[in-house]
Amino acid sequence: MSKINTRKVAVIGCGFVGSASAFALMQSGLFTEIVLIDADQNKAEGEALDISHGLPFARPMQIHAGTYDDIVDAAIIVVTAGAGQKPGETRLDLVKKNVGIFQSIIPEIAKRDCGGILLVVANPVDILTYAAAKLSGFPENRVFGSGTVLDTARLKYLLGEHLGVDSRSVHAFVIGEHGDSEMVAWSSANVSGVPLHDFCEMRGHFHHEEAMEQIAAKVKNSAYVIIEKKKATYYGVAMSVRRICEAIVRDEKSVLPVSSIQHGNYGIEGVSLSMPAVVGKDGVEALVPIPLSMAEQKKLKESADVLKSVLDEAVG
To answer: Hey, which residues are catalytic here?
Structure first.
């Protein structure tokens, strides 16, 4: 296995999400080398040039277009390649198209005996994370998806707005599928240790059930609203990619709701979905068993079943 360059990241796919992620990673100062790979070499070269021109305002690094041979020593390989979600299309509609794309990309990565972490960002992220783990043959801790990191950020943002409090002081997770069957783990939600309902009442909000439903629906439908208005979502997910890369490169052992293959957690087996996990230099180190009510456990199981049926159909 090749020696890892801990300051190098590869981004495969230079569409909206890939190029926005590369831009966010350039600004992070985490890396000294970013390699961009795309089926359209010109696109990769153009994005690399465009982002490089901002380097005098950032930190010295090398940003260039490359090939799969350039990923061998990358600490993190970010896979954003895939067809985008079109207006009116669900993330699961994308399945067959993008599993097909992964069947050509992932074996190219596997062939090169990389020792880095495979971070799947393309949608539907849970299905593609499972496919990437199986096609790559990498140890499971080194293959995971961006999952509900963005959904959780959306939730924190909306709760922060609702309560008039810094969104970074809100501790709550969206778990399950990154998509229509996702759910908010309300029973463990708190604001700096204060249970959510108590904090709401402190801020003059009493219609808990109604507010919870509205906020959860807003989080779930965010992508559809943005896609309808501007045809694609990419800044929020680019910041999520940056956050995950930070946890890996700095070996932070941060708890993030990434998508990984489940083995018996809440009775869920053989499907990839998001649960809070300790993320560090070795990838997913451990899952964090947050307390869930019986109703939440049931919803999580239903989310897993939705993904399982799609998986059986698409991947077999």
So the answer is: 178
Of residues 314 and 310, the one with the higher pLDDT is 310
**pTM score of the predicted model:** 0.95
Asked whether the beta carbons of 116 and 2 are under 8 A apart, the reply is no
Place of tokens 């990769």: 44
Tell me where in the chain the CATH 3.40.50.720 domain(s) lie. 5-145
Q: What is the pLDDT of residues 59-72, one digit of tens each?
A: 999 999 999 999 99
- Phi, psi of 282, rounded to the nearest 5 degrees: -95, 10
Considering the domain 5-145 in this protein, what is its CATH number? 3.40.50.720
The alpha carbons of the chain give a radius of gyration, in whole angstroms, of 19
| Assigned CATH for 149-314 | 3.90.110.10
Token digits for 288?
């964090």
**For 17-56, what is each residue's pLDDT tens digit?**
999 999 999 999 999 999 999 999 999 999 999 999 999 9
- Strand ranges, E, within the chain: 5-12, 33-37, 62-65, 74-79, 117-120, 143-145, 170-171, 174-175, 183-184, 190-191, 194-195, 254-265, 268-280, 283-287
